[in-house]
Design brief:
Blueprint: E1 14-18, H1 47-59, E2 64-68, H2 78-86, E3 93-98, H3 103-113, E4 117-121, H4 127-134, H5 139-151, E5 158-163, H6 172-182, E6 185-190, H7 208-219, E7 223-224, E8 234-237, E9 243-247, E10 260-263, E11 268-270, E12 279-280, H8 282-286, H9 291-303, H10 309-315, H11 325-330, H12 336-339
Parallel strand pairs: 1-2, 1-10, 2-3, 3-4, 4-5, 5-6, 6-9
Antiparallel strand pairs: 7-8, 8-9, 10-11, 11-12
Helix pairs in contact: 1-2, 1-9, 2-3, 3-5
The protein binds S-adenosylmethionine (SAM) and iron/sulfur cluster (SF4) (2 copies).
S-adenosylmethionine binds near residues 30, 121, 196 and 340.
Length: about 350
């Protein structure tokens, strides 16, 4: 089937599968509240259901899948899902984004199952800061998880760090040095005002420009890597050849080349991180709709897609948290930890 293009000419290529909305820590920029409403267990898609949907997405051009959450490694038996996905030869990449805590238990099984790449979220190298930022004393386990991924044979590891002013913005250099030490590429992420980030404020955002200025003061000139890609990170090289990325969704969004969509653990499909409505794929799937009809449904919604949430947010004058706590409590799908980052 021909590549599906949306109204802005963007292909349907990359699918983020949130396999659970639960998490074993509480990052202040993602889950700052005291309690959360979880998706009902009976609504969570089985692996068999996920794979049936993935097959339809593959029919329509998807060739990259990223497992996310919540914390994806909380989902029982995740390597089995990876195994099922790895049987799909049309998928050129199966990746995982994780906070790393459970990697020591699962890295080897995930590698054996056919996982291609791992991204670990690591915002700080200081255990005290990690505790303050996440409410859990799990920093050592994250570092052990990174080691476990390397031992299991994963190469080209990525380390993602959300940079918050006054919290970890003095660690840009240390994080890069740690990345060099373990041969991982570090990506700095601007703090986004997505659902879930109920404490978001402009003054806490460290922009890509500011990050690059700070790094140039330390290392000397930083050179952009010229590449034609739909990847969210713009990449740069330091004078010593180290490359790193910056994901500037807040100050310099990249919606014009966004080929990503997201499926929640209970089967709602979101065309944008900022979309307030998802498309229910669970009901048609469980209701016995044919594969061709599900394919038509997905194709028609993608063809109508005009979303460019981060660019629109940039135009909002009095910018503050995108969704209120009250609204998040009524619809858990608006949470970042439900739809996956
Ligand atoms: N739990 C896994 C993890 O943390 O890697 C996967 C899910 S998490 C929602 C995916 C990514 O979203 C993480 O790298 C996290 O740092 C990022 N994220 C969450 N809230 C964010 C925010 N307000 N701004 C920018 N990135 C955010
Ligand atoms: Fe942190 Fe990821 Fe959990 Fe959100 S889902 S609280 S970013 S570990
Ligand atoms: Fe894609 Fe929406 Fe993110 Fe823009 S805001 S890059 S359209 S997911």
């Amino acid at each position: 089937m021909a590549l599906q293009l949306d109204r802005l000419g963007r292909p349907l290529r990359s699918l983020r599968l949130s396999v659970t909305d639960r998490c074993n820590i509480r990052c202040s920029y993602c889950m700052p509240e005291a309690d959360y409403v979880w998706l009902p267990r009976q609504d969570i898609l089985t692996f068999e259901e996920i794979v049936r949907l993935v097959d339809v997405f593959i029919d329509l051009g998807v060739d990259r899948v990223r497992l996310t959450g919540g914390e994806p490694l909380i989902r029982k038996n995740l390597p089995h899902l990876v195994e099922l996905l790895a049987e799909r030869s049309a998928l050129s990449e199966i990746a995982l984004t994780t906070n790393g805590i459970l990697l020591p238990d699962h890295a080897a099984d995930l590698k054996r199952a056919g996982l291609d790449r791992v991204t670990v979220s690591l915002d700080t190298l200081r255990p005290d800061r990690f505790r303050a930022l996440t409410r859990y004393d799990e920093h050592a386990r994250v570092l052990r998880g990174i080691d476990a991924a390397i031992e299991a044979g994963f190469r080209g590891l990525k380390l993602d760090a959300v940079i918050l002013r006054g919290v970890n913005d003095d660690e840009l250099v240390r994080l890069l040095e740690y990345g060099t030490q373990i041969q991982a590429e570090v990506r700095f992420i601007e703090y986004m005002d997505v659902g879930g980030a109920t404490r978001w404020a402009w003054q806490d955002v460290v922009s890509r420009r500011e990050m690059l200025d700070r790094l140039e003061r330390h290392y000397g000139p930083v050179t952009p890597v010229v590449e034609d890609t739909s990847a969210p990170a713009a990449r740069f090289t330091l004078p010593d050849g180290t490359t790193f990325g910056v994901i500037s969704s807040t100050t310099e969004p990249f919606c014009r080349r966004c080929d990503r969509s997201r499926l929640t653990a209970d089967g709602l499909w979101y065309l944008c991180l900022y979309a307030t409505e998802g498309i229910d794929l669970r009901a048609p799937l469980r209701g016995g709709m044919s594969r061709a009809a599900v394919r038509d449904l997905i194709a028609s919604r993608w063809q109508a897609r005009v979303d460019r949430g981060a660019e629109e947010r940039l135009q909002s004058k009095d910018r503050h948290a995108f969704i209120t706590v009250g609204r998040l409590k009524k619809d858990a799908h608006l949470e970042m930890h439900t739809r996956g980052g």
